[in-house]
């Protein structure tokens, strides 16, 4: 049996320790979740990030006279600021470099202030800036540097396997699951 979210958590911790652009991230405030992709096709969403705060790290916002907030997520003593969902088997069936790009992409969405909000770019496309391709291009040098330093690390073996290889090697595939957080009205 293998818990894919444990594997992704280890890799995320390794990336945050070793890639300067992610040094502001506390991996213990991230919750990595397993989500099922409806089809085995590589087309579709590979991963998503859900912040637990609003712009500027605000715990709540007012909209049309009502106050709204995300639910507080705590696991033991850990306060979760971001929930990352990885869609299986789609994510696992990507090429090694594309899996790393997906992980780096989601981590790059995390605000430099690490306040529960996402990194915001100017304009209407605040999540990715003017171009999603340009957003991902920023990450290529980080990924190349990471791979050149850690390509032989055993911790990355998980990313080298596709879903069927994982199942063949470990049998049952599990992971942490959680419904996506929804904004609720504060009463």
Report the biggest beta sheet as strand number plus sense, adding barrel if it closes.
3 strands, mixed
Order of helices and strands: EHEEEEEEEHHHHEE
Mean pLDDT: 92
Structural class: alpha/beta
Instruction: Please work out how many helical segments DSSP would assign.
Output: 5
Distance between the termini: 43 Å
Number of domains: 1
**Annotation, overall tally of beta strands:** 10
* Overall spatial form: globular
Spatial arrangement of strands, main beta sheet: 2-8-3
Key structural traits:
single chain, 187 residues, alpha/beta, 5 helices, 10 strands, 21% strand
Tell me the layout of helices and strands:
Elements: E1 2-3, H1 4-18, E2 30-36, E3 47-51, E4 60-63, E5 66-69, E6 73-75, E7 78-80, E8 82-88, H2 96-108, H3 132-150, H4 157-160, H5 163-170, E9 173-174, E10 184-185
Parallel strand pairs: 1-9, 2-8
Antiparallel strand pairs: 3-8, 4-5, 5-10, 6-7
Helix pairs in contact: 2-3
Give a verbal description of the structure.
It is built from five helices and ten strands; from the N terminus they run E-H-E-E-E-E-E-E-E-H-H-H-H-E-E. The radius of gyration is 17 Å and the shape is globular. Helix 2 packs across helix 3 (132-150). The model has no long low-confidence stretch (mean pLDDT 92). The chain has 187 residues and is an alpha/beta fold.
Brief description of this entry?
This protein is of the alpha/beta class. 32% of the residues lie in helices and 21% in strands.
């Amino acid at each position: 049996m293998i818990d894919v979210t444990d594997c992704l958590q280890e890799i995320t911790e390794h990336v945050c320790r070793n890639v300067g652009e992610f040094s502001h991230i506390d991996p213990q405030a991230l919750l990595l979740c397993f989500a099922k992709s409806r089809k085995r096709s590589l087309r579709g969403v590979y991963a998503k990030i859900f912040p637990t705060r609003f712009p500027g790290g605000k715990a709540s916002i007012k909209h049309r006279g009502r106050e709204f907030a995300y639910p507080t997520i705590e696991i033991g003593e850990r306060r979760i600021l971001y929930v990352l969902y990885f869609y299986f088997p789609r994510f696992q069936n990507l090429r090694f470099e594309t899996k790393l790009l997906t992980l780096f992409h989601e981590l790059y969405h995390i605000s430099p202030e690490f306040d529960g909000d996402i990194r915001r770019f100017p304009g209407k496309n605040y999540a990715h800036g003017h171009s999603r391709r340009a957003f991902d291009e920023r990450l290529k040098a980080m990924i190349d540097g990471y791979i050149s330093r850690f390509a032989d690390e055993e911790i990355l073996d998980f990313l080298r396997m596709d879903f069927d290889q994982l199942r063949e090697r470990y049998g049952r595939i599990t992971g942490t699951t959680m419904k996506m957080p929804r904004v609720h009205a504060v009463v």
